[in-house]
From TrEMBL, chain A:
Entry GO MF terms: metal ion binding
Matches recorded under PANTHER family: ELECTRON TRANSPORT PROTIN SCO1/SENC FAMILY MEMBER, LINALOOL DEHYDRATASE_ISOMERASE DOMAIN-CONTAINING PROTEIN
Signal peptide from the UniProt entry: 1-23
Record-stated family: Belongs to the SCO1/2 family.
Covalent S-S links between cysteines: C76-C80
SUPFAM superfamilies: Thioredoxin-like (SSF52833)
Pfam families: SCO1-SenC
Entry keywords, A to Z: Copper, Disulfide bond, Metal-binding, Signal
Name of the featured protein: Protein SCO1/2
Annotated residues for binding of Cu cation: C76, C80, H165
The keyword Phosphoprotein is annotated on this UniProt entry: no
Species of the source: Luteibacter rhizovicinus
Cross-referenced InterPro entries: SCO1/SenC, Thioredoxin-like_sf, Thioredoxin_domain
Domain Thioredoxin: 36-200
TrEMBL record, chain B:
Superkingdom assignment: Bacteria
Taxonomic source organism: Luteibacter rhizovicinus
N-terminal signal peptide: 1-20
InterPro entries linked: LpqE-like, Lxx211020-like, PCuAC_sf
Keywords, sorted A to Z: Signal
UniProt xrefs under Gene3D superfamilies: PCu(A)C copper chaperone
Identification of the protein by name: Copper(I)-binding protein
Length: 205, 149
């Protein structure tokens, strides 16, 4: 179909107007998250635990940082290292802004995970990772707060045992608000994309 | 005529003789261990190519460098990360079975002496016919993604 010149001009103007309106819309709208948006559906970051340097810490100590919280344990040779390695690669890809983010690795095996073991473990993956340990009760309360779960499996016979645990990664903004949920199988590109946006949201101007 | 038959039979026997060793039909590549700090257990990963035209079975594993070695599989089905011990792992005919993070792995425990990144460690895989496939695994840092990166 051939359009006469005036009709073409009008069509072109309409297109420009539409594009302009859309751009205006997007500037006001929420960022286009690629991970699962949980804003308003999960409680703020709040806990009382011991960090891998043996210091008592609370959720408030991480205000100002974007937090990636993950439940696991050090005697986990496969899934936990896979997830922590993935998060390490994500942090590297973020570059300098990664300094405004922290990986909080919360132990679901406080019986075996001491601050010393946790310290060596998290630092083997990323220098911005923090190991957190609490009593059995505090850990359970924290997991429950985020609708996470863990179960100590039966002894393998030699005193060793595994702990099955939720594999989700909980992402909080700089104000400690729960914002996003990622699974270990989430694409690295998507995690990097969303963290860039989230770190940018509360950046000091 | 008779001699020809005998020669043919001898050839068949030879053929069977070569196939009787399951380990000879399996080729292992990209073998690596994710080394964790201290005495923590480590995961071992490797690709097994079964060149034969029938399914082969790994029924056991051990390593001179570790007190215990086990066949394991992890899963994150339903959002729960868990591990199970396996009695055996099937290697389907004419295909490659991968031991990779988040799935099949060798769980290596109680290292005789600390294994460091850069070390090479032998892990033996026992096949159903009793043959053994020794594989050299390269030890890699905790946050490695594979045998080289
Ligand atoms: Cu395992």
């Amino acid at each position: 179909m051939k359009l006469s010149r005036p009709v073409r001009a009008v069509a072109l103007m309409a297109l420009f107007a539409m594009a302009f309106a859309l751009a205006g819309c997007q500037r006001d709208a929420q960022p286009q998250w690629r991970l699962t948006d949980v804003s308003g559906h999960l409680p703020d970051l709040d806990f009382r635990l011991t960090d891998d340097n043996g210091h008592a810490v609370t959720g408030a100590d991480y205000k100002g940082k974007v937090v990636l919280m993950y439940f696991g344990y050090t005697h986990c040779p496969d899934v936990c290292p896979l997830t922590l390695t993935q998060l390490h690669v994500v942090m590297q890809r973020l570059g300098a802004p990664a300094d405004d983010a922290r990986i909080l690795f919360v132990s679901v095996d406080p019986a075996r995970d001491t601050p010393e073991i946790m310290h060596a473990y998290v630092n083997a993956f990323d220098k911005r990772a923090v190991g957190l340990i609490g009593s059995e009760r505090d850990t359970e309360a924290l997991a429950k707060r985020y609708r996470s779960a863990f179960t100590r499996e039966p002894d393998r016979g030699d005193g060793a045992y595994d702990v099955s645990h939720s594999s989700a990664i909980y992402i909080f903004d700089r104000d400690g608000k729960a914002r996003l949920l990622a699974t270990p199988s989430a694409a690295q590109d998507d995690i990097v994309h969303d963290l860039h946006l989230l770190i940018g949201l509360g950046a000091k101007s | 005529m008779k001699t020809r038959l005998i020669v043919a039979l001898a050839g068949l026997t030879l053929c069977f003789g070569a196939q009787a060793n399951d380990a000879a039909s399996v080729h292992a590549t990209n073998a690596w261990i994710r080394v964790l700090p201290g005495t923590l257990p480590a995961g071992g990963y490797v690709d097994f190519a079964n060149d034969s035209d029938h399914t082969l079975k790994i029924v056991d594993t051990d390593s001179p460098a570790y007190g215990h070695a086990m066949l394991h599989r992890s899963s994150t089905d339903g959002g729960m990360g868990r591990m199970e011990m396996l009695k055996s792992v099937d290697l389907p005919a004419k295909s490659t079975t991968k031991f990779a993070p988040g799935g099949y792995h060798v769980m290596l425990m109680d290292a005789g002496k600390p294994v460091k990144a850069g070390d090479t460690v032998v892990v033996n895989f026992h096949l159903a016919d009793g043959s053994v496939l020794p594989v050299n695994f390269v030890a890699r840092p905790a946050n490695a993604n594979g045998p080289k990166d």
